[in-house]
Amino acid sequence: MIALSLAEIAAVVGGQTHDIPDPSAQVTGPVVRDSREVVPGSLFAAFVGERVDGHDYARAVVEAGAVAVLASRPVGVPAIVVADVQTALGALARHVVRRLGATLVGLTGSAGKTSTKDLIAQVLRRKAPTVFTPGSLNNEIGLPLTALSATEETRFLVLEMGARGIGHIRYLAELTPPRIGLVLNVGTAHIGEFGGREQIAQAKGELVEALPQDGAAILNADDPLVKAMAARTKAKVVLFGESAEADVRAENVRLTDSGQPAFRLHTPSGASDVTMRLYGEHHVSNALAAAAVAHELGMSAEEIATALSEAGSLSRWRMEVTERPDGVTIVNDAYNANPESMRAALRALAAMGKGRRTWAVLGKMAELGDEALAEHDAVGRLAVRLNVSKLVAVGGIEASWLQLGAYNEGSWGEESVHVSDAQAAIDLLRSELRPGDVVLVKASRSVGLESVAQALTETGAEGEVAAR
Q1: Chain segment 328-338, per-residue pLDDT in tens
Q2: CA 333 from chain center: how many Å?
Q3: What's the pLDDT at 195?
Q4: CA distance 440 to 445
Q5: Model confidence over 214-269: pLDDT tens digits?
Q6: Which of 48, 52, 128, 267 has CA 20 to 30 A from 275's CA?
Q7: From the CB of residue 390, how many other CB atoms can be counted at a distance below 10 Å?
């Protein structure tokens, strides 16, 4: 974080200082909420959770080097006491970004946010120091913590913004006002909470409504609900996609033999070829979104194409490909799942597995509401149409719907199996995998299927396993 004294921080957040011998003492390290992340110079934000109360760690974090604790009650060590720690954290983030002078890029969408955010960061940091959301910390706590990790050297701040209802993105944009706002797509993720795609579009569009007149709204020309958001912003509109009307577009899209996308990138200032290290054709749209942001910030087509071609995955369990020494390929995409990302992952599996036996180890897609049965059935049917060799549906009723969809799509459905839990899937695969097989593991985060991918990665490893 930029250096601030405890007195300054107390004034910004409207807090009272307690047990602070020197109010001029400065916070020079990060603001953290996990006591294990404290380093000398930190400010520790004490949140009260369902099982853990951060206030209980106050003395330990100060002994570890924290300058003070941001708390909701006195804790017997240097503290700034506020009515609500989350509100105070947001106020501090808003103050810091105003002082920074960095360009803020906010992005949202139903699918692909984290992968796209990672691509944008890898492209922009070739131009100037860049801070970006770690993993998927895109909510009312994660976003301000990311913003507060910026320093005086930071020139670009890339912030992923999630939403579970109307008004969420508006609130995040007020904390960290973006100059560039990117909307990737409007899908069915969290549709059970929102009530419909139109409501999801309303929520996602709050990002472009927050942009200043001299800002830029980066919108997906291939998604009608996103493209329509152009009418909701006073900022410049830049379209990306494969549509001929897109300002930043892809031509000659194809997949390499290993399932990695390649295409000709066209921007208003030139064109250049891209061959990505990531897997799956869905990354083309993510790359175009990143390219549109980078072009708006002054990078050339050649610079962007080079950066996209060299970019990798920065976040765990998202199309994370591991080659076992015995020739089995594990694709760990178990961080989360929704119908759009599930279809994209299955298509990537089919592309990667040409001439090889493929396994789709799939589990529940959460928060789909009344659409849950139809969406799980559709994913099972798609696995059959893509000629995936084996479907392993893991879990309860949603998994049975996956298997039923596969079975009803055709006789191939007899190759599907429904197992009760992750351990049952591990036991099955350990007994039946053979060299050359490709295994995709994917479900919503709550299912915990990353344990399947991790167990299979470790199985039979005689030497070091090479992860790409």
Answers
A1: 999 999 988 98
A2: 12
A3: 67
A4: 15
A5: 999 999 999 999 999 999 999 999 999 999 999 999 999 998 888 899 999 999 99
A6: 128
A7: 21
Q: How far apart are CA 402 and CA 430, in angstroms?
A: 22
Cβ(95)–Cβ(8) below 8 Å: no
**Nearest of 85, 195, 178 to residue 132 by alpha carbon:** 178
Q: What is the mean pLDDT of residues 91-96?
A: 97
Q: What is the Cα–Cα distance from 176 to 159, expressed in whole angstroms?
A: 9
Mean pLDDT of the chain: 93
Type of residue numbered 41: G
Predicted TM-score (pTM) of the model is: 0.87
Quote the distance between the C-alpha of residue 371 and its chain's center. Answer: 23
DSSP annotation string for 270-321: EEEEEE-SS-STTHHHHHHHHHHHHHHTT--HHHHHHHHHH----STTSSEE
Positive or negative, the CA dihedral 277, 138, 443, 290 is negative
Please state, in angstroms and rounded to a whole number, the distance separating the CA atoms of residues 336 and 142: 18
Location of structure tokens 């996308």: 261
- Among 294, 289, 272, smallest CA distance to 127 is for 294
CA-closest candidate to residue 9, choices 84, 70, 73: 70
The owner of tokens 């390290």 is 29
pLDDT at 68 over 90: yes
Tell me the pLDDT tens digit for each residue of 175-221: 999 999 999 999 876 666 766 888 999 999 999 999 999 999 999 99
**Which of 346-360, 418-432, 447-461 has the lowest average pLDDT?**
447-461
| Residue 263, both tokens | 């295409």
What single-letter DSSP state applies at residue 11? H
Q: What is d(CA 338, CA 341) in angstroms, rounded to the nearest whole number?
A: 5
Nearest-angstrom CA–CA distance, 304 and 283:
15
**What is the rounded CA–CA span in Å between residue 103 and residue 306?**
22
DSSP designation for 47: -
Q: Which of 55, 68, 87, 88 is nearest to 26 (CA)?
A: 68
- The pLDDT of 30-36, averaged and rounded, is 95
Contact at 8 Å (CB) between 48 and 55?
Answer: yes
Alpha-helical segments (H) within 106-188: 113-124, 142-148, 168-175
